[in-house]
Structure formats: C-alpha cells, structure tokens
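Recap from last week: sequence in, structure out.
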Amino acid sequence: MKANNEFKSPKENRSTLSRRQLLLGMGIGATALATGMIGCTASGNPSKDLESNAEDGAIALKEPTQTIDTDVVVVGSGMGGMSAAVTAAEEGANALLLEKQSVLGGGTNFAEGVFGMGSDLQKEAGVNGSLSDLLAIELEFQRYIVDYTLWDFVVNGAEENLAWLMDHGVKFVELGQGPYAGIRTQHIYEDHRGSTMIAKLEEAARSIGVEIRTDTPVTHLLMDGDTVVGVQAENGKDVLNINAKAVILATGSAGSNNELFDNHTSRTSEKYMWCGAPGLDGDGIRMAGEAGMGKPYRLMAPLVGTTVEPLGVASQLAALAAMNPYALWVNQDGKRFMNEWLVRTAIYAPNAIESQHKAFSILDQALFDRLVEKGDPNVGWGYYVYKDAPLPDAPKELDQELSRESENVFKADSIADLASLLGIEPTALEKTVQDYNKLVDAKEDPALGKKAEYLTDKIETGPFYGFRVKGAKVNMFGGIHINSNAEVVKEDETPIAGLYAAGVECGGFQGETYGITVPSSCQGISLATGRRSAQSAAAYAKR
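Predicted structure tokens:
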C-alpha cells in the first residue's frame, strides 16, 4: 500500500472539552470560560495551506505498530460522522469511528437544532408547506451557485432522516423558523445543544457494534494505486494502519485554518473571529487532496453574527457591543457604512464588515447602562446571550478588557479622544456623531434606511465606548467535492474509489453568504450526507 502525494501536515489542536464546556459552549482558560464560545481564538491559524494537487511523490507513512481490518472507517464524530457510522452498521458493515479529540461530537456539540420534516411537534403546531418551495427560496437566495443535485437528496430525505433520529431516541423541545419562509422545519435539541443528540447516537452506535476510538487523529489515507484502502492514524505512541474497504471523511471542514480561508475564499480572515469547536483544521480536505481530488472545492465561511475579539458569541459585552442595532457603526474613516439594524439579520452584517478596512460600534454610557440593566428584545446572540435579558456581566467584562489594554475595546471621556484611540481623525468622527444624533431626533435615516424604532439612542452621554467588531466565524462549509452518492470526486467528476465524505466539509451547498432560509441546514446537510455516504460505502464494501 502507498499514498501518492507529499504534503505539510497541519499542527493538531489537541484541546479537550469538559462536561461544563459542552453544556455551556464556553472556551478554555479563565477569560474564555467567562466569556467565549469554545475554540474562539484570535489567530485561528493551525497550519499551512492544505491544498494538495496529487503531484508525483509518495507520502512517508510511519511504520505501524498495529494493523486493524474493518469494512468502513469513519473519520470524525459530529453529526455527519456519527450518523454515518450508525447507518453503516445498520447496513451490515463492520464500522470503526475515529475521533481526534478526547470527546465525541466536534462542532455539532454546539448546534442548536436540525432541519427536518414530519415530526409530532410540527403536526401539533399545524405546520405544513412545501419543502420544494423552501428549496426554491434557498436557490434564489444563493443566486443558483449551489448544487441542486445535492440539495435535492437533503430535502427529499428530510422526513425519513428526522424519523431515523427520533427512532434512535433523539428528542426535540421546540420548533424554530427561518426568516424568509413560513414553514417551521428547525427542530431544537434538548438543552439547545447537539451534544444531547450525539449522546443518543453514540449509544446506538455502541449497541450495534460500532467500535469508537477517541484521541486517535487520522494522519493519512492508505492508497492502492488510485483506490483508497484505509487510513493511518495515531493514538499516543501507537501508529495504526486500518485496512478498510471504504473510508468516510467527516472531519468538519477547516474553520480554524486561516491560511486555507484566505487562499480559497474571497474573504480576509483578519476581519473575522474563529468561534467554533477545536480541531476543525481541514484534515478531511487535505486527505481528499492527497487522494487526487485536486484543490479545495467551493470553500466558504458560514459567518453568523458579529462579535468582539477575543470575547466570542457567549459574551454579554460582545452582544451589547456587536449585536446591538441601536449603536452607531463607523468605518476606519469615521463614516457610517451600513444600516446598523443588519446585525439582527445575522448574515448580512459580516458582508458589510468585509467591505471596510475596519469596523467599529460606538455607544455612550446611557445606552450601555440601559442594556446592562434592562436588556432589549433586539440585543442578544441566539441561545448564548438571550435577547430581552439584562446583561449584568458586561461591566465586568469591560473592565477586564480595558485593564489588559485590549486592541478592540476602548473608553474615552470625549468623542475626539475616542476617535484618537480608534485611529480615526477626530473631527470626522465628531461630525458623524453629530449627524447621527440629528437622525435620532428626526427618527429618519434617508441615506441608509435605519428604521425609527432603532433610532432611539443618541451618542451624547459620556464616557463613550468604541468596539472593533468582526464577523463570527462559527464553522466552514465545503472543501471536498462529492456527487449525489457522497463519493469524493476528482475535478473531472470521476469518483475516487473507496472514498466518501459527509458533513459540512462537502462543497456545493452554499454560496458566498451563509443561507438561513433552511434553518439548521448545517445539521440537516450533515445528517443527509452522513446517511447517504454510509449507504454508498456499505454497498461498495459488499462488492
């Protein structure tokens, strides 16, 4: 057996998650535990670019200390990997699941729900509607840059796949709804965390004979010519050669790999903060490239909301500063560049940030105090910082950031002094503030269209606060090119024998802007591709 490409291996993030971190979705270390979602990092740059072009030359595999034989090996244990492992076993294959972290679930642990249809919750709520109409809205939203043949099996399998989850004991507590379609297809997990679902699928996997190994990162694919015949993995000092008839890559894409992000998307990583789970370094994309796929395919970042680095999405101060439609937003020149209400849409504000060199939110003490004491129905971040709730932790977080002289959090007694701290010409910012206050008095924003209901708070009561705002990068979409059988394919659409992929690292589902027409689409896509890849892999293994 041999592999057929030379590459530079990514540095592995071997961070682990405690039970508390899993339940709260908070980060590692004192600051992150207090404020941030797990994995939030300023650099988010674990490795070199993972592009691989299958050039001549062999990968130097290590001498194995152990050899294992199985039918199907699944790499990764989020929704895509776990559903694939259980389905492969149900299809009669011997399945082995490998996870490089010490706990299972990956980014799925922090997912809120899954896309699906046909549940009792929907029947009780009188939900009806056409999923084909919902898909049509998504295709229009993405300007048809997405692959209909992939979306088709996700949507058409929505009822069967949701029933499959429920048959395995997964429970849902409520329904959510996307902003552009009336049909309520989002099924919210217990505790609003996918970790509860992962626990049920783990139980199902073990009961049906799936072998699960954690702390076992896969480093290479094993190749026999152009055919994938297994993986090489490591566990401590042990090097494992796992011979398999089929391999399913479900490693969760490459959200924490900034070089891959910069080289293969149209965006700039410096304008975003990585707020996802640890270990999403692009392992699957790299290995698919080793096997001959070619360059990363249709990579994009699901940017959801805005935040302040290094606070992350679970921070009350970050919500007050960056998910606040009442604040004034300006660019590096001290000029308004967007309707601040866009922060409530979650997906458009990051696009506006990308258009500027830097972006800042500005508010005064009166607005700060109002939100701390009373909260507001329009200020918050999902199930991490609840809307309409007071934000008592924000002052403590503010003091902490100011005491460490944060590069993203500023306080001054005058607008001119604040401008100097932000690197903005003082008279320019003073004029913008004066003009904005007139808009508040007039309850009208002719230039940018901010509605009167959000033109409620002037910037006039010192001290004044400025925050460098960034888009929240919670995951990555794409990187691996698959067909509708979930086979990994080369640039000429030829399948790579023995290689399949599942989850959000499958490219073709998203355009430049994260679509929330189909709410919890990440989980829905992962479930559908996980089951489809396992059905295809199990059938291939039986040949």
